[in-house]
Amino acid sequence: MRSGNYLQQLTGQLQYKAFVPNLLPFEVKMDIQLQTLLSKADLALGRLDGVADILPNVDFFILMYVRKEASLSSQIEGTQATFIDVLKAEARIKDAEIHKDVDEILNYISAMNYGIGRLKELPLSLRLIKEIHAKLLQEVRGEHRTPGEFRISQNWIGGASLQTAVFIPPPRAEVIRLMGNLEEYLHDTTPMPILIKTGLIHAQFETIHPFLDGNGRIGRLIITFYLYQQGILRRPLLYLSDFLRTERQVYYDKLNAFREKDDLEGWLKFFLEGITITSEKAVNTARKIVQLRENHVAKISSLNRSTKKGMLLLNKLYRTPIVRVRDVETITSLSNPNALTLVEKFEKLGILKETTGYKRNRVYSYTDYIALFS
Prior knowledge:
With about 375 residues, this protein is mostly helical. The protein has 2 domains: about 5-285, Orthogonal Bundle (Fic-like fold), CATH 1.10.3290; about 305-370, Arc Repressor Mutant, subunit A (Orthogonal Bundle). The chain contains 15 helices and 5 strands. The longest helix has about 35 residues, at about 265-300.
């Protein structure tokens, strides 16, 4: 098979078969359907890249998408914390309902931002992948599973043991060789459509499963990092976890068919479909943000003497959409009574919504904006 083969390990009752992938590159059979999906994905990704030109501040858009991606990518791996939990935690809102798993999501955000920053000085490489992995597992579940280091023991996916596992990645002795080949492929200049290559990179990484924990999250980060490094995206705007979480079982089935049935093309068609759907949703969200901002700027302009302070608050809400009155004091340099008055005006305009039942230490949410990402 093009993708690889199962090799028997151990003997007797302890025997199992581990999948050892072949070295990249793989031959891909470009039929009409695959070519059509590739064209659609290229077009959709180009439109997504253009989002940077229509948003008032694309960095805030990216920040919200990173938070959403971190939440959904972590949920695919079993984390229970939500997007709202992350917003509250970052705003330092004390809430008994915030799930303890939120630290895992915050680590994901930290790892993503670290990786994007490092790409300006270091190419996408095994070194960088290890550094990102160490950030991901720092002081959270999995912190004792050799963060930042490739595994030196056998792992598996699904099932309680190697004998009942759904999938068994290559033996530990193969990991360095296979990851070295993956690194070479990341920088191979042989002509190939970038999105096809990206799909193969993701599938190969998940097949190797080089870490004891965090492989899924790192593998999804590599997609964005690779497209960003290749200049396909000027800004890190593509995050597939929403699509992959919605289509979780299909995602797993396509990866398994990639390995077991040599169905590289089936996996790539699914991957390209995800690129198209995700890009189109992000572009649509960006357009809605522009409309929302125009609507709310018009409303704030009716506040007369409060308009200037109101615009300061609105602009801050695009970065931190959950606030308290004392946060508004800091943002606007208003005294407590005047900050409260401004918040009340935002409530009447339908921009802010009180979310704590008017108890002490009230919390206000820019709900229309948050809803665009929920």
